[in-house]
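job 3f2a | input accepted
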Amino acid sequence: MAALLLAAPGIAWSLELNDCRISAGPGTPSMKARCGTLLRPLDPAGMVPGEIELRVAIVAALNLTPEPDAFVPIAGGPGQGSVQFYAAYAAAFEDVRRNRDILLVDQRGTGESSRMDCPVDEELVEGQYSTELTIEYTNECLAALPEDPRFFTTSVAVTDLEAVRQALGYPSLNLYGVSYGTRVAQHFARRYPGSTRSIVLDGVVPPQLSLGPEIATESQKAVDRILDRCSEDAACAERFPDIRATFRRVVNQLRESPVSIEVPDPNSGRPERIAFGNTELAVAIRLLAYHPNSVALLPLLISEAGNGNFVPLAAQYQMTMIAMLDALALGMHNAVMCSEDLPFLDTKSIDYDSIDASYMGSMQMKALEAICSVWPAGPVDDGFKEPLSTDLPVLLLSGDADPITPPRYADMATVGLTNARHLVGEQQGHGQIAVGCTRRLVARFVESADPDVVDAECLERNFVMPFFLDFSGPSP
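job 3f2a | predicted structure (476 res):
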């Protein structure tokens, strides 16, 4: 473990880094970095005693004389660690790394920063939902957490990032946030504008929006657009006629009764029998709709299910659940949602009819309400839910087929941004950094700290995977 040096009270923190290797998880390639641990108060306000450890890593710039301001990727979720996220997408940040260190901080409660996780309840995972069971599981989760969950909100987390900046001596930071990470980036810039040089927001969550009610309806819109695109494509329409009607039939069938099927376990390869119902379908479809490459599979998988073969979709569900549970710290996720989203909702205005009409239905929303009915809310700064107002340079990225943060969310975030530019990828999903030329555009923006110098003409040529007509791949 890296050595830790703490300065006297009132003096800037000092952090020693040692050689280490980071990766996206077991079995994935690793890369060199310099790692350390920074102690932080559990409660920065000093009302509750205790300390937590923050994991910090730096991937050094390729240039031997780099710029003094680091580039900081901030993961989404909420609940994913930034070290793991960066390692998975490192190639997309290489253009930025030419001239700048990559500074990685696992946000408190994620990764190796006092991870706030909960054991998985198999009954809930298998879709046996009830309000009572969810509350019982949530109370068990709370009792098992290693720290007080109130102090894992965004408002507390940004103070950690500023402490790391001071400890390492960076004069300012270039922030990149994806999904929930855009919320963190915007609030850091609000609270520490003097410590912020530039901001990239990828898959934007506007501060004034509370997540929850639109998750199901936005995902339904995205899936409808995907299936309509199939119907407008001659080869896809011929291979999968009336695919939207097939999808409705599959959703209705699984709502009436789950099917029992045998699928190989993704880890062991051994066959196991599972119940595949509408909850499992919703998880599989929602995550497949995030990325254009997996979008290309949707009509084929839906058609197979419509013909009675649910195994391909069930296999996607199993792989998705394993990856999601490995990546996300559920305790931290709940701490954010139950402090920053649910308390700000006007539940009387929620259109449950539209949610129920979506393929996801209202189970996720109702489960979130049940969890937050017992989860303790943590501190939220004044003005947290207001749009960020700043003249700092901001580049916003959206995909017009994003099922969770559509382009209009980025438009909502721009109302107080006077030096911003919003780029939209055609037929692209959630998160643009790894798509086509986007990495070069981000590097150009960070280098100049000026959104107007970015030439986005190349976005029109970004690749979109053709639909798979069978399991051998897309058509030529």
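job 3f2a | The longest strand covers residues 30-41.
job 3f2a | closed
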